[in-house]
Design goal:
This protein is of the alpha+beta class. The protein is built from 9 helices and 7 strands. A hairpin with a 3-residue loop joins strand 5 and strand 6. The longest helix has 19 residues.
Length: about 230
C-alpha cells in the first residue's frame, strides 16, 4: 500500500480492523480529514441510539429518511435527521460515548474533521455486538449499508470480492481549497473473513482520481487479509 501511495498525488489516511485477529492497522494515523457523506452512518447510529433510549422504534418518516440518506446519500434527508437528533451537540455526545478521541465537531455535518481510527470505533458499534446499539438497530443499519445504490459503491464496494457481503458508506465533495475529498468506510465479510476499514483521501485533482485510489487500496487490503 505504501509503495502504491508514493505514486499518488493525494493525501491518504487509513485504518483497518481485522476482527479475527483483533489487530488494527493504520496509515497516516494522525491526519484529520473531512467526513463529507461518511458521517451519514454516524447520524443514523445516533438516531437509533436515541430511539432505543426513548424505548421506541423509528417512525415511518424516519425510516424513509434513513433509507434515502444511506442508500442514496440524499443530503436533504441527512439535514432533516441531523436536526432531529439534535445536531452538533447530540452527535458530539454520541461520538464521545462510543470512544471517539480525534474528531472535531462542526455545525455542518459534512465539515466534521475526523480520523479513520475514530471511524473504526463507529463501525465496531454498527457491526459488532456492544452495549450501545442493540442487535435490531445494528441489523437495521447494516441492511441499509449493504444496499447502497451501485453507483455509490466505489472503494470497499468495488475493491472487495464480488461474492462478499460489503456494507459501506462513501463520501465525496469538492473543496475549493484542497480539491476533491473522497472517502469509503464499512465492512467486508466473505469466506470466513470479517474486517472493518476506513479510507479517506483529500487533495484529489478530480473525483475519479480519488475513487481510483480508495478502490485500489480496498483491493490491496482484501489481498492481504483474505483467508
Amino acid at each position: 500500500m505504501a509503495a502504491y501511495l508514493k505514486k499518488r498525488a493525494n493525501l491518504v489516511t487509513t485504518a483497518v480492523y481485522d476482527v479475527d485477529s483483533g489487530m488494527t492497522y493504520l496509515y497516516n494515523p494522525d491526519v484529520h480529514e473531512s467526513t463529507a457523506s461518511l458521517v451519514k452512518i454516524d447520524i443514523l447510529a445516533d438516531l437509533l441510539y436515541e430511539a432505543q433510549e426513548s424505548r421506541r422504534v423509528l417512525t415511518a418518516k424516519e425510516d424513509v429518511l434513513a433509507t434515502k440518506m444511506i442508500e442514496f446519500s440524499n443530503d436533504d434527508a441527512a439535514n432533516h435527521l441531523w436536526t432531529d437528533i439534535g445536531g452538533r451537540d447530540a452527535i458530539d455526545s454520541f461520538n464521545t460515548l462510543i470512544g471517539f478521541r480525534q474528531t472535531f465537531p462542526s455545525y455542518s455535518w459534512g465539515n466534521i474533521e475526523t480520523t479513520p481510527r475514530d471511524q473504526l470505533q463507529l463501525l465496531k458499534v454498527i457491526v459488532l455486538p456492544n452495549a450501545i446499539l442493540s442487535a435490531a438497530s445494528r441489523a437495521y443499519e447494516s441492511d441499509l449499508m449493504e444496499n447502497v445504490t451501485p453507483g455509490q459503491r466505489f472503494g470497499l464496494g468495488w475493491g472487495s470480492p464480488a461474492q462478499g457481503t460489503v456494507g459501506l458508506k462513501d463520501g465525496w465533495y469538492l473543496n475549493k481549497g484542497t480539491g476533491w475529498q473522497i472517502n469509503t468506510s464499512g465492512y467486508v465479510q466473505y469466506n470466513g473473513r470479517l474486517y472493518l476499514a476506513t479510507i479517506m483521501c483529500t487533495k484529489n485533482p478530480n473525483e475519479a482520481y480519488g475513487e481510483g485510489t480508495v478502490t485500489t487500496l480496498s483491493r490491496l487490503i482484501w489481498q492481504n487479509l483474505k483467508p
